[in-house]
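During the no-cost extension, the postdoctoral fellow (Dr. R.K.) reprocessed legacy sequence entries with the updated structure-token encoder. One reprocessed record is reproduced below for audit purposes.
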Amino acid sequence: MSTDARPGRARRHRALRIGTWVLAALLVLVLVFLVWAHIVLQGTRSAALTVWRDDRVSVRDAGDAVVMTPTGTADGVSIVFVPGAKVDPYAYMATFRQVVGDGTTVVITKPTLNLAFFDTRPLSRFAAHAPDGLTWAVGGHSLGGVRACQLAEDRDVAGVLLLGSYCADDLSDSDLDVLSVSGSRDGLSTPEKVAAARDELPASATMTEVTGANHAAFGAYGAQPGDLPATVSRRESGRAVTAAVESWVRDLR
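Re-encoded structure tokens follow.
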């Protein structure tokens, strides 16, 4: 064999080894990401039990969503709600217990990989779980609110609910009934970020800040990394959020 061929073979072998290592590293990164994405902030058991024990509320797992329906007379309003990043969808049941008990249907989605920006499924996918809805609204917490603003482009949507969140899409020229509820102690969707994105919402949007509430106050899942400590109890901030959402729903009816 010619000695001139040996360096070429060595280079090919070296390139093959490098390619193998790069591929292996990419596979490890993908596996690490998938494991990370599936580790969610779990909903607290005590909060979930208050919902399960409420005779006014029926809860079922629809596979791609948690569907909460009133056992009494429905008011015709249905909300598709998108959880925050890596937060258990069941953690929001307590947030909507009173609203559902009053007659509103709430469909809490299960985002792809627990991250709303990976979820490209249309509103109709989740609306199918509440076929009797006459008035539709979308909402979300944190990153879920960003996704909700995208879903709001659907012509069937009448309102948008933002909990500890803000829009990246421009809805300022729409006639949507928008409610934004934020916390003065939110360490993630900070008051400054919410204020900076105010121009993306209609001038008629209702902006409500709950004094002392933090980012985790909008769901029942405990503390969240990067958040600030709340200076009011979860029960107190929960009452404020419920009151704001109930008023917004009344406007949608």
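The beta strands are 57-61, 65-70, 77-82, 105-109, 135-141, 157-163, 177-183, 206-210. The chain has a mean pLDDT of 92. The remaining legacy entries will be reprocessed before the final report is submitted.
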